[in-house]
Amino acid sequence: MNLNSFIAMRQEIFLLTILLLLIVGEIFIHKNKKESLVHFALFLFGIHTIIGFFAIEETSLFGGMFRTNTLIHFFKNALNVGVLIVLLQSADWIQEKMVPLNKGTEFFMLLFSSLLGMYFMISAGDFLMFYLGLELSTLPVAALVAWETSKRISSEAGVKFILSAGLASGASLFGISLLYAATGSIYFADISTVLTSTNLTLLGFLLFFAGLAFKISLVPFHFWTADVYEGAPIGVASYLSVISKGAAAFILMILLFTVLKPLMHVWENIIYVIALATMFIGNLFALRQQNMKRFLAFSSIAQAGFILLGLITGTQLGTATVVYFILVYIFTNLAAFGVVQAIALQTGKENRDDYNGLYRTNPNLSLVMMLALFSLAGIPPVAGFFGKFFLFAAAASKGYYLLVFLAVVNVTISLYYYLLVVRAMFIRKNENPIPFFKSKIYMRLGLLLTVLGILVLGLYSPLYDYIFELSTLFNK
Amino acid sequence: MDISYILFIPLIPLAVFLLLGIGYQKIKPTVSGYIGVAGLATSAALSYYAAYQYFFVSGKVDGVYQTIVEKTVWMNFTDTLHIDMGILVDPISIMMLVVVTTISLMVHIYSRGYMHGDTGYTKFFAFLSLFSFSMLGLVLATNLFQIYIFWELVGVSSYLLIGYYYTKTSAVAAAKKAFIVTRFADFGFLIGILIVGYYAGTFDFETLNAVNPEGEGLLLNWASTSFMGLSVITWGLLLIFMGGAGKSAMFPLHIWLPDAMEGPTPVSALIHAATMVVAGVYLVARLFPMYYFVEDGFALNVVAYVGAFSSLFAAIIALTQTDIKRVLAFSTMSQIGYMMLALGVSSYKGHEGVGYMASMFHLFTHAMFKALLFLGAGSVIHAVHSNYLKDMGGLRKYMPITNITFLIAALAIAGVPPFAGFWSKDEILVAAFEKNQLLYFVGLFVAGLTAFYMFRLYFGIFWGKNTKYKHEPHESPMSMAFPLLFLAFMSIVAGFIPFSEFVTADKVAFEAHLNLPLAAVAVGTGLVGIIIAWIFYKKENDLAERFANAFGIFYKWTFHKFYFDEIYMFVTKKIVFNLISTPIAKFDKKYVDGTMEGIGNKTVLISEKIKGLQSGRLQDYAMFFVSGVVFIALIFIYLWTN
């Protein structure tokens, strides 16, 4: 392993180092001082995030199994920032609830393992590496979902997640093997040259697709989402809804636009149908949710449907809009989850009605939540508006007017239920609202980062141009 | 020339606004006053430095003042059509920077005394800073869209300031009225922007205004399409002027200005004398080459006549008002009409562009003396706690500084040499005389009226009857007196600035000469006005009342501002509300809402129906998963194959 490959893999290597350091710390630090490991882990990951911003060159390693370029690197950085926010928002919960049970450090280790898996997944150059990354990113999360072992609902969520994930990954693996059977290779570069549209490859593609669709929560592979989000610790739910989903959508896009391009005439129709189903089902279910976690689960399903509008184009514009949307979505959804988590940690309440009159007692939290919901709903000039607008523009540029129209209908439905929460916070009266409280510094920092992200992404347009430039990499 | 530091001129007030806005519960009022003043002082210092750099050091290349632009693309629509954000530096934007920061700084200092003890002190300064930011952003805009964004920001911040005394019903109503009327005008503005943007393919001022090297026409190809006998670009310019007329209170969109006097007096000085209300003039000046060259200046002619008529109309109304701030409000409208008139009669090249120069010159001098008049009026109101002339009189003994400075301002606006207003007004009259004699006589007549109503005000406040005051009025504190003195100084010396050296239509300096005969006639007219006012109001007598009675109905009409408010009320309430809005509202309620609610209910119903899908049983989920794959496979492999 020479220096070049070291530099190309430095995100992975650094993360692995952090992981090992944590294990060492876990072993050697006295039981009563485990709390310091939380700060230590956050500190290390913060450094890791910052170092990540140094540029990287396009490289291919291990005979093409691992590859990286500026867009992939950019996306890894986005994931880092997202995970950093998730950790900041969960830090108080870990310190208060998990460290006393001696489960604090493991939380970080599992989360970092999963993130490592995502790095490998999006950097994969062949289906083997891809599959290993996929598994590495999924399995630790199953443990995390069932983390609060004292709660029955958490264990149930863990079981549901691991079994669904097993099914999905089995389907995926089967699909990969069919593709291998048809093309005789597992390398992306080789497959794209020989892949033709036959019944065998189509079935292979579809099974493979189902596995990723599970991770992105596309209808009809989405059923686990709400139950798991509800049962999982909020930090884990937000990780699932943002990081896991974002990474899977990203790799799906890369694969569709490069390796699976020969099947485009088929997959564009599949995506068309699934986009519609996902948006409608997600929104219709979100309408009725009282529990904020379930509510955000269905909302995130609907948002995944919007992502497909960019995927369907198969162009550079599509890539740019999808990456931009995911970026916006990371900050936006984490803001919403962060507020839910802050409130749940303080009061244990997670229903919409509990939020009635929140603005009077906790104006800052309410404003953050409002910003997040406006961004999710796509109200200008918040970032979410531009995210959706660009996606719609990309789809319209390929002539999918009906799809865009139906997507707009869905935006309207979603506006209704997002505003229900805003109404609860700002307008509805409450006899005994959630009293005023002040979150700890990590939580506030986490929320501040999301707010900054939403505002900067919405108002600072050169960023989009930058992403657009990077997007040429996969659309030659 | 490096202009990036100019960016800080608007950004500092924005930072002050954010600081005061976020921390308004924690910052002590006195501190917030200092923060506001310090912020604006920095901006003003930067503006002066920028003006020095631009006019005397590096702005001029080969005798032509350069237009310097720095911008980034903010939103991209097509290859040519995009919205930029940036700053544009040319003579008028630099001049406006100086005007806005100077007046704003004076108003900030003055407000520290005037608003002393007010409960919302910090909030007030936060709003002032927000307004300054918006106005400076407007001035520096590089394209139509950017100017529109700041235009609306100015509207919002002025709404906040006019309605500052939000416990007072009349203030809230006035704020609403100002907002709605200007919004209505801005609607025209927006359509104008879109028309120009669509047909010209750009929003950029630089491209829109680009003139060929001989200075004989625009590079822009405007003669594309015509609509109702006029080029569409002309229509666009007329609509843009509608926006300008709304902000600048031109007839018939002037009705909000007198009511806006409900705001605190420093606000009136800042917004309704020196900055926001001249935004319309600035807008026309900004697009002047377009106005001049497109269709032989048809739109520019409209500007001239609207300006002249507004000027006359407002001057007549100002004769009879008894609320001193309203007199000043109508006077402002009249003077802005003057500026519009001057722009309207201007040409593009060399000395023929004297109208443009005069308009900007008058904008500059007017800002100084009108702000002074408002601040002086504020000082008087502060002392006697009334806005009405009947409660005043003989104040010269109690308030010497206010008296002298007010007199200087009145002389300046009346056009008496050597005060500032004389020089700029003279140039306007010269421009009008050379181009359009009818407008010249209107202007001359208005000059006489102006002198008369101004001195009616002056004598009424400081001379006239010796009113008995419950509390003895006293001179204002130094924080209020200093701005008065400074502005008085400016009202004396501003006229001696050789404006034609700096600000001209084609950006090439020319020699302006005093036209002696015209100047003599103008000064004579002004003096006649002053003398009549002297006879009527110097001592307490019933001359004025007898005169008013003799004019009877005409006096009543003017006193009621020609019933324009009533006409608007009739049109909106009786016609628009009753005949149009009510039936539409019914239709909306019954059919549109009904349909929408139906759809909404159906959506909820469907949502209810399908909830069984999410059973919570893992076996079901797995079944859906597998059958989903099979189902899609069947469809796409066997049925839907393209």
UniProtKB/TrEMBL annotation, chain A:
The keyword Plastid does not apply. InterPro entries: NADH-Q_OxRdtase_suN/2, ND/Mrp_TM. It catalyses: a quinone + NADH + 5 H(+)(in) = a quinol + NAD(+) + 4 H(+)(out). It is found in: Cell membrane; Endomembrane system; Membrane. Residues 124-413 form the NADH:quinone oxidoreductase/Mrp antiporter transmembrane domain. Keywords: Cell membrane, Membrane, NAD, Quinone, Translocase, Transmembrane, Transmembrane helix, Transport. It comes from the Bacteria. GO terms for molecular function: NADH dehydrogenase (quinone) (non-electrogenic) activity; NADH dehydrogenase (ubiquinone) activity; quinone binding. One of its GO terms (cellular component) is plasma membrane. NDH-1 shuttles electrons from NADH, via FMN and iron-sulfur (Fe-S) centers, to quinones in the respiratory chain. The immediate electron acceptor for the enzyme in this species is believed to be a menaquinone. Couples the redox reaction to proton translocation (for every two electrons transferred, four hydrogen ions are translocated across the cytoplasmic membrane), and thus conserves the redox energy in a proton gradient. NDH-1 is composed of 14 different subunits. Subunits NuoA, H, J, K, L, M, N constitute the membrane sector of the complex. HAMAP family: NDH1_NuoN_1. This is NADH-quinone oxidoreductase subunit N. It comes from Flavobacterium franklandianum.
TrEMBL record, chain B:
Keywords: Membrane, Transmembrane, Transmembrane helix. Residues 74-125 form the NADH-Ubiquinone oxidoreductase (complex I) chain 5 N-terminal domain. Residues 141-446 form the NADH:quinone oxidoreductase/Mrp antiporter transmembrane domain. It holds the Pfam family Proton_antipo_N. It is a multi-pass membrane protein. It is found in: Endomembrane system; Membrane. One of its GO terms (biological process) is ATP synthesis coupled electron transport. One of its GO terms (molecular function) is NADH dehydrogenase (ubiquinone) activity. GO terms for cellular component: endomembrane system; membrane. The chain crosses the membrane at residues 6-24, 31-51, 92-110, 122-141, 147-166, 178-200, 220-246, 267-292, 298-320, 327-348, 368-389, 401-423, 438-459, 480-499, 519-537, 621-640. InterPro entries: NADHpl_OxRdtase_5_subgr, ND/Mrp_TM, NU5C-like, Proton_antipo_N. Its main location: membrane. PANTHER family: NADH-UBIQUINONE OXIDOREDUCTASE CHAIN 5. This is NADH-quinone oxidoreductase subunit L. It comes from Flavobacterium franklandianum.
